[in-house]
Amino acid sequence: MTATRPDPAGESFADLLGGRRAAIDATLGPLAFGVAFVAGGESIEWGVGAAVAVTALIGVWRVLRGDKLRAVLVGLLGVVVAALIALHTNRPEDFFFIRIATNAASALAWAVSIVLRWPLLGVVVGTVLGQRGSWRRDPALLRAYSRASWIWVLQYVLRLAVWLPLYWMGQAKALAFSTVALTWPVVAACLAVSWYVMRRSLPDGHPGLRHPQLDGTRVKV
């Protein structure tokens, strides 16, 4: 059994969620910050200016390709707020404060969702598939989503383990370039590993995540 095409429909979490593309986009702003920060003689203004400009250009390109304007604006707003925080405190590492905070909040939210038996991976995928809450009525799917969701918790914890010490030491350059290393490659690995865990957790003969079952009977969705 492989992690890339284990579903009867030939799909994966990467196919359903499109996480790799979004993660790649999310690295370009911090990368631009790091490059401009170094090239400008460790100038915060150069760094944040480059990050906002690159993110805005990506946003325009995404909108022209048909992406939703709201999602693009949310991404741009996050970079603008991060830039304003860094400019206000005059601490370049504060450009990454929001990113660190959101990863901490995400780790907590995903862990709590598993404990409450509403694993967020199931919520997200179920919403994409239009299943509402029917997947929760399938014990096998619920258990599989819970196990796979721990992989997502681990990705956030991994980033925090690297970023928090760098933030406390004021290592803005290291934060910028570690963001590239710990965003899209980690997201790609998380999608593949969680998909593998998901499929390995389902019993033999289960029709897959598109077909929740209740007491051995397929639930119509």
TrEMBL record:
Where does the chain cross the membrane? 46-64, 71-88, 108-129, 150-168, 174-197
Q: Which UniProt keywords apply?
A: Membrane, Transmembrane, Transmembrane helix
Question: Record's superkingdom?
Answer: Bacteria
Pfam families per record: DUF3159
Mind telling me which InterPro entries this protein's record contains? UCP010219 (IPR016566)
Q: Does the keyword Transmembrane helix apply?
A: yes
**Entry annotated with the keyword Transmembrane:** yes
Protein name in UniProt = DUF3159 domain-containing protein
Biological source species: Catellatospora methionotrophica
